[in-house]
From TrEMBL:
Residue ranges that the Swiss-Prot or TrEMBL entry lists as coiled coil: none
Signal peptide: 1-24
Entry-linked PANTHER family: ANGIOPOIETIN-RELATED PROTEIN 3-LIKE, FIBRINOGEN/TENASCIN/ANGIOPOEITIN
Species this chain originates from: Patella caerulea (Rayed Mediterranean limpet)
Name assigned to this protein: Fibrinogen C-terminal domain-containing protein
Amino acid sequence: MLLGNSLLLNLLSLLYLYVQNILCEQFHEEFIRPDFCTDKVLSNLESYLTLESTSAIQCAARCSLDNKCLSVSYRETDRTCFLNFGLLANDCGNGVTLTNTVYYQKKHAVKECMNNGTLVNNDCVCYGGYVGRYCERLMTDCSEGYREMYEDAGIGLYEALPTGAPQSFSVTCVMLHGGRNLVLRHFTPAYTLNRTWVQYVDGFDHGIHASWIGLEKLYWLSRIKTFDLFIEFQTKEVPATYKKIVYKNFRIGNSSTNYQLRGGQLNRARSQVNATDCIFGLVGSSFSSYDMDNNQVSGLDCPLKYGGAWWYNGACAQCNPTGNLYHTPGGNRTWADDEVFWEPFDWTPIGISIWLVN
């Protein structure tokens, strides 16, 4: 019986050595240690799968079976194998120094761009909101898109996936001045912003005429990062003249709070006009539309009075950015309750844009 067990152990040992030899041959044929950045391994941000392996050879063998895998990092202390969709850059820009960790890459591996990105001068050019060295993930917001890839792209519709959001969504970005997320745009009087609660939650887009990002998107964008809210009025058409009001630390609550306004401090130093601090008195208020009036003061019906939707409290608000546009001669106010206004100004704009800026 003992002899039989000993024979079985010997056979298993021989089989293990045979398999290891096969893996070693495969490993040496297909994988190399680069002669640059010898003290670096690829950042785990470029790993798509983590698994346990008994050795770096076994880790590399697992990679060899997957066309998506271009390189591996193996941490010897806990036998962790990282399969990477990327390669260590010649300048080590995507490398990190980790103790007891080795890096190998496929000998004939070629840098590949993901999600329809194109390779130009060994760099991936990404589209549609994808960012990263290999276009491997979606940007969290327009400001990250600007920093990562799109600083010269102008205005456009991009896909974003803010941190923690359950799914991605489209957002209009101006990839200038650090990358701006469009919240509201209104320039055509025939397109009013007196919309339903569902439309304000989901958003609507009529191009330059009228658009609103959607409260759900606005919540996810402002949930983690600190943003400024830029309110920009166009007061004259020829030549175009703009006036800007800036609020810092803008954020709102989620749907369970009816998108309660949680923060917004007037930044007078960055504002171009001496405006009333309209938002300060509205912090703590929930958003309201004509079919969902969440104003804590009953009987006012602010959405009906102001012809739009906003955060209202007390005597409604000292501003009405979602009201109606009245293109009056000289841009003078009509003093109608439902026009776009911001106290204490006696003018009404021909158009308004609101941006979320990081």
